[in-house]
């Protein structure tokens, strides 16, 4: 049992369990009331409508001062009493609202921040693109008083629950990282506002699909506490109504990706984008792209130049990773952010497998490539609205026939072929030497090339350089007056009489300077030159 401050009423445990949360009452509806009306609400001290009471106390507080007396108790003391009652009644939305208005902070916040920093993670407090709010990145240990001040400065003033919820997320992430650090692989920066968005998405998923039972084979994607961390009996629509224990379970379910195979492609993309999760070695692969992009990369309308980026940073430097992460963080839609990550991974894969490709004539505009890939998909599916990418987000990420990877790869290949982004000749008959891979220079244009039928020639004969060496020029000066580039052709194929299969056969025409010989060399395997 608990006795109130004014000793006027005693609440039994039964009455506490039957507490009512007037969740239909909003602060904006109470704000227009006069001071006298607010005073009467506070004086009545009616816990049958706890939100109305808390709103009245805060609005009168903001109009006057926290030490204003109402029947021998200040407004601060009365809000503290509402906070304690809400904790006992388990009215979690109201608990967070009162704690936010009172600027309460957990004692273990600063050690939790330090625990994540020493593991190479950044933490971003606050909310972006909200009036009176901002994002603040924590990159070094911070004093508890400064951390408390930043939390409430960066979060919206009209949403004090956000600062309290962020504190719970800090504790949940730190505890999970201590016990299971590998689940944070690919997450460079823990953005608390994005993590809140991911929890909100998961909560909406539970509400939309309903409390269905998952039993072996399912026709849909029913939510379960094991999938989402959210109890199936939870019916409210706000993440601030979740209990602190459920919040920790949801964070664990998100980071461990428990049963994510039940989610759709769109849900998976949104959650990965909201969690800021990147593939393995993603930032190193972006460095590879930048190395072979002379004119730089455009990511979300932000230009990343090749120089001085490559000269000022290194491939494995965290500063470069933070720079790319900051560029991606400018994107407000998590599913589009994840699609950009997929596109950059595709470009990196193409470059790794094709060393002759280099983007030397134009910038890589990632936004244009995504639009091109969606246009290819829309043309194939007959989609007329090219502004809504939702059908594109719903595609599987790695399906062989119809996936985002398929159409994004087509867009990248068309960009490569249209821009002729090749740094060397594509040699389809062998490795060759660097000189043989080099594009013909202006000096050799318009001249008759030498023709070499290599057949199965030895490695020494395959190592002929364009134009020959000085020693070979002296040895063959009676056959040639001027060095010309070498052009390798395919070995002619002839069918064997016995089996009818096609096998390579060497052709050995004699030099033009001598008489034609049509009878010799039919079965020999050697390289000859037509000079």
From TrEMBL:
<dbReference type="InterPro" id="IPR045583">
    <property type="entry name" value="KPBA/B_C"/>
</dbReference>
<keyword id="KW-0636">Prenylation</keyword>
<keyword id="KW-0321">Glycogen metabolism</keyword>
<feature type="compositionally biased region" description="Low complexity">
    <location>
        <begin position="508"/>
        <end position="518"/>
    </location>
</feature>
<keyword id="KW-0472">Membrane</keyword>
<dbReference type="GO" id="GO:0005977">
    <property type="term" value="P:glycogen metabolic process"/>
</dbReference>
<keyword id="KW-0449">Lipoprotein</keyword>
<dbReference type="GO" id="GO:0005886">
    <property type="term" value="C:plasma membrane"/>
</dbReference>
<protein>
    <recommendedName>
        <fullName>Phosphorylase b kinase regulatory subunit</fullName>
    </recommendedName>
</protein>
<comment type="function">
    <text>Phosphorylase b kinase catalyzes the phosphorylation of serine in certain substrates, including troponin I.</text>
</comment>
<keyword id="KW-0119">Carbohydrate metabolism</keyword>
<dbReference type="InterPro" id="IPR008734">
    <property type="entry name" value="PHK_A/B_su"/>
</dbReference>
<dbReference type="GO" id="GO:0005516">
    <property type="term" value="F:calmodulin binding"/>
</dbReference>
<feature type="compositionally biased region" description="Low complexity">
    <location>
        <begin position="481"/>
        <end position="497"/>
    </location>
</feature>
<feature type="domain" description="Phosphorylase b kinase regulatory subunit alpha/beta C-terminal">
    <location>
        <begin position="255"/>
        <end position="371"/>
    </location>
</feature>
<dbReference type="Pfam" id="PF19292">
    <property type="entry name" value="KPBB_C"/>
</dbReference>
<feature type="region of interest" description="Disordered">
    <location>
        <begin position="455"/>
        <end position="531"/>
    </location>
</feature>
<comment type="similarity">
    <text>Belongs to the phosphorylase b kinase regulatory chain family.</text>
</comment>
<keyword id="KW-0112">Calmodulin-binding</keyword>
<comment type="pathway">
    <text>Glycan biosynthesis; glycogen metabolism.</text>
</comment>
<keyword id="KW-1003">Cell membrane</keyword>
